[in-house]
Specification:
By secondary structure, the chain is mostly helical. The chain contains one helix and no strands. The longest helix is centred in the middle third of the chain and has 132 residues. It starts with 5 loop residues before the first helix and ends with a helix. The model has no long low-confidence stretch (mean pLDDT 88).
Length: 138
Amino acid sequence: MFEGNLDTTNIFLGIMAFVSLLQALVIIGIAIVGYRLYSRAMQTITSIEERQIAPLAQRAQALMSTVDGILGDVKGLTSRVRGRTEQVDAAIDDTIHRVDETAGRVRASVSSRVHGLMGMAQGVAAVMQALLHARRAA
């Protein structure tokens, strides 16, 4: 039926080889362009990092060290205030205890004197009544 013609087959093989070679060259070209774009992008990123991000990072680091110093000072002040507060609480408790104790002593002292005076007043009243009753009876 069909007799094979090697010339046609060779032409198709040649075309396929040429197309494969062309594809390989295109792929290599795309790879080279991609590598160049990647290199430029990395240079741009590195440049931006050096010009923009590095100073910001240094400022942030300086700010963080300042904040750490402030926090250390606040912790120190807080502990000192806590200590002073405990001392003030103890002093207030001691003062209240002393005031209560003094009030009790004053109350006891005044009470004993008042009781003594009341006893004397009752005695004087009893003597006066006795004298009045004795005069009436006489």
